[in-house]
Design goal:
36% of the residues lie in helices and 21% in strands. By secondary structure, the protein is α/β, with parallel strands linked by helices. The protein folds into two domains: 198 residues, ATPase, nucleotide binding domain (Nucleotidyltransferase, domain 5, 2-Layer Sandwich); 228 residues, Nucleotidyltransferase, domain 5. The termini are far apart.
């Protein structure tokens, strides 16, 4: 039994064949890009990766993992009318605030599992209607990018539909009140089905073996997230967290950060190079730089879901160094994860995954110190890709072998007090600057 797994992320499309145990059974094919928002070009690159991975091989099934929260308008010929409007596009912030004012932020969160925020479809659709009314009027269908490379624009998986912010969790159908307000007929949306692309966050948990009520995936790729994938009886969103349905009776619940690997790249591009020689950032005294860093350069998602937040740093002095700023930024992201961990108290086992985090052991150590608990580093190099394979295998009735762990990083108790103080300062700076 062999399956094809495909993972379309924000920086590359990857494809690989897997065997029935969930282990790779072929070479990884990858197409890299940066900031690509042309749907047709991204479809072409994804198909090229698929063709390279498959060659002349036959497979029994395929699974597709795709980045979430994207929106594309299609015409009657199924051709794109818009670029990919993704989670990083914040132009719909005013519309998100207006939706919250009219329908209630908490009420929408309880119904859909998502807050009114530019990441999600309702704000994007409202923005498109206001700023490009002709495009909005002539659009035959609104889809996520996953439908363009999956089963086609006529259907959408429950997983992708739930991550749009337009799904009624309890009815498991498009939210009628939002549709009426946005003036979008249900016929212009894909039909919700059991198959199709699965949001990459769910696949990341599956691939890293983070399934159940206590084992969470802490992912840092371009952005960051702390997620549980667990079974549910009735979905009940908790304050500050998202909640998405998955078709096998599970929910993905957690928080998302807009700053992750993108912040790491910003540090590398902006600051002086790290000095050569012994020692590491994780070995520097915690919080000794005296800086308070608010890691919201890409805006805020969890836990506040504000639409106007930006990054900030205070405490700069003439003797502040590039290494001080770098350390403060890495600690700051870890402290934001600590805020999310407080909202998921049952998540006692933490598994680090994602390219940006798994490649930087210093950062994993800082995260373990901030969370005050061990962090396991996943041995799965491509968790979302492996998760897509597991989705396909589960549909065939196969059970993959457990995911392996490369290393367990223990927290250092002597650093807890300093990082707790830093977290208090970060929270105070947030409350001072964020007035939404």
């Amino acid at each position: 039994m062999r399956v094809l797994a495909v993972d379309v992320g924000t920086s590359s499309a990857r494809a690989q064949v897997f065997g029935e145990t969930g282990a790779p059974d072929g070479e990884l094919a990858q197409e890299r890009y940066s900031g690509e928002r042309d749907p047709s070009r991204l479809v072409e690159m994804t198909r090229r990766a698929i063709g390279t991975a498959l060659g002349r091989q036959a497979v029994d099934a395929a699974g597709l993992s795709c980045f979430g929260h994207s929106l594309v308008a299609l015409d009657r010929r199924r051709e794109p009318l818009t670029p990919i409007l993704d989670w990083r596009d914040t132009r719909s912030a005013p519309q998100a605030r207006e939706l919250g004012r009219r329908l209630g932020r908490e009420e929408l969160h309880q119904r859909t599992g998502c807050y009114p925020h530019p990441s999600f479809w309702p704000a994007k659709l409202a923005w498109l209607a206001e700023t490009e009314p002709e495009t909005f009027r002539t659009a035959r269908r609104f889809v996520s990018f996953g439908e363009l490379v999956g089963h086609g624009p006529a259907t959408i998986s429950l997983s992708m539909a739930s991550s749009t912010g337009l799904l009624d969790l309890h009815a498991r159908a498009w939210d009628q009140e939002l549709l009426d307000l946005l003036d979008v007929d249900e016929e212009r949306l894909p039909r919700i089905a059991d198959e199709g692309a699965v949001i990459d966050g769910v696949c990341s948990n599956l691939g890293a073996g983070c399934v159940g009520p206590t084992r969470a995936a802490l992912m840092v790729g371009t952005s960051g997230a702390l997620r549980l994938l667990r079974e549910h009886d009735e979905p009940r969103p908790r304050p500050g967290l998202f909640l998405y349905l998955h078709s096998d009776g599970r929910v993905a619940e957690g928080g998302a950060l807009s700053d992750g690997g993108n912040l790491h790249r910003w540090l590398d591009d902006t600051l002086a190079p790290r000095p050569a020689g012994p020692g590491s950032i994780a070995d520097r005294p915690p919080d000794a730089h005296g800086l308070t860093f608010l890691p919201l350069l890409g805006g805020e998602r969890s836990p506040g879901w504000t639409t106007t937040a930006t990054g900030a740093v205070t405490g700069l002095r003439l003797d502040t160094t590039a290494e001080d700023i770098r350390q403060a930024a890495m600690e700051a992201v870890a402290l934001r994860f600590a805020e999310l961990a407080d909202l998921l108290p049952e998540a006692r086992e933490i598994v680090a995954t994602g390219g940006a985090l798994a490649a930087d052991r210093d950062w994993v150590q800082i995260v373990a110190d901030a969370l005050e608990r061990p962090v396991e580093i996943s041995a799965v190099e491509e968790a979302s890709l492996r998760g897509a394979a597991i989705v396909a295998l589960e549909r065939l009735g196969c059970k993959a072998e457990p995911a392996r762990v490369r290393e367990v990083v223990e927290p250092r108790p002597e650093r807890f007090e300093a990082l707790r103080a830093a977290r208090i300062r970060q929270r105070a700076l947030y409350e001072l600057l964020i007035d939404e």
